Amino acid sequence: MNVVLTVNDKEYTLKKLPPKKYKRFRDMLTKVGDMDLFGANNYTDEALDEVAMVVSNLFNGELPVEEIEENADISDLIAFVREVQFDIEKGAADRINKMYQDFFQKSADALAQKISNNS
Q1: CA gap 77, 103 in Å, rounded
Q2: What is the pLDDT of residue 28?
């Protein structure tokens, strides 16, 4: 079952990740979790690329990587992907839409905060 998500007047089709891809994602998350010593977000570029790739696959390759906000908390992103996996099965499009909007809003806010702190 697919879910269509609308963001900034663009439609994206969310697809359930195949079990093999999802397993690879989960395995990678374990490694990423081990990297985040004391919550310092010490993630490698490779781990972040992997997360971006999974999210891109989830969005059927339609979501440009730039839209996967680099300043987003990776744990939010991981939780988002897990929830979406679950919700696609249930066809809970409204819930996914709300989560997606919340997630990217938080990312945008974090980025704005970072910029204002640096200026």
Answers
A1: 8
A2: 62
Structurally, the chain folds into a number of domains equal to: 1
Q: Are strands 10-14 and 3-7 parallel, antiparallel or unpaired?
A: antiparallel
Token duo for residue 10: 């663009």
pLDDT digits (tens, 9 = 90+) for 15-63: 666 677 666 666 665 665 555 544 455 555 665 566 666 666 666 555 5
Indicate whether this model's pTM tops 0.70: no
| DSSP 8-state assignment for residue 70 | T
Contact 107, 16 (CB under 8 A): no
End-to-end CA distance of the chain: 46
User: Which domain, by its residues, includes 112?
Assistant: 3-118
Structure tokens at 70: 């680099």
Residue 119 gets which letter from DSSP?
-
